Amino acid sequence: MIEIKNLHKSYVMGKNSLHVLKGINFEVAEGELVSIMGSSGSGKSTLLNILGMLDEADEGSYMLDGVPIKNLNERIAAKYRNKFLGFIFQSFNLISYKNALDNVALPLYYQGVKRKERVDIAMSYLEKVGLAQWASHLPSELSGGQKQRVAIARALASNPKVLLADEPTGALDSQTSYEVMDLIQGINDEGRTILIVTHEPDIAQMTKRIVNLKDGVIIDDTRVNQVRALSHV
Ligand code: ADP
Ligand code: MG
Fold first, then answer.
1. pLDDT tens-digit profile of 60-114?
2. Whose CA is nearest to atom 27 of ligand 1?
3. Strand 59-64 and strand 2-13: pairing?
4. CATH number listed for the domain at residues 2-231
5. Whose CA is nearest to atom 21 of ligand 1?
6. Among residues 79, 95, 55, 94, which one has the least CA distance to residue 158?
7. Which of 65, 118, 191, 213 has the fewest CB atoms nearer than 10 Å to its CB?
8. Residues that place a CB less than 5 A from ion ligand 2
9. Model-level pTM greater than 0.90?
């Protein structure tokens, strides 16, 4: 599903350059649930943003579902992002003046799906994350865990091949984190490929494979026996 080879990324600020990714190689097969770990500043978000086509590497290759991701114009990039990728962020990134249903429906609007169908699809995903009765509520009326569920429903609405989550439990207490991880595990059980950036070891143990980043390279890449989040809930 994902294949990256010798990926390099530097940030240039004036005369200074910070070499953040120094030759990353890895592959993710369809259906995997992978965590990317590493201390703060180790380049986890940089890597995820490149995988999410929000940023481009300086060097190396990236294949996503057999498509080489390189030098795409913004229109094509947006099309691929929409088709292949769903994003989940630590800070939820919901639109504050839109209710839960409209937040979930938004990616479908950008895909040109008609209003009635958008509402039906969005509602089905809100049901899936257990929030159907909160459809007309604004984000400000939802708890952190509920907001993240809405964000997950939004990420799923366009039926992407891969979900990318950057510290999805970073703003949540432990109990709520495990509930969100239970939802993520359930989505992965259905076969969806998911990558999660986290610096929390207990969250990483709930994935099936842990990739450790340090000083711009992968220092460890290990399959683990997945801990079910429900055992903590
Ligand atoms: P992590 O997500 O692991 O905490 P990041 O990928 O966000 O790490 O950042 C890696 C390094 O790159 C950090 O030192 C950070 O300050 C730097 N960095 C990240 N984004 C930018 C940017 N847009 N411009 C300059 N430096 C950046
Ligand atoms: Mg980060």
1. 999 999 999 988 888 888 889 988 999 999 999 999 999 999 999 999 998 889 9
2. 11
3. antiparallel
4. 3.40.50.300
5. 11
6. 79
7. 191
8. 45
9. yes
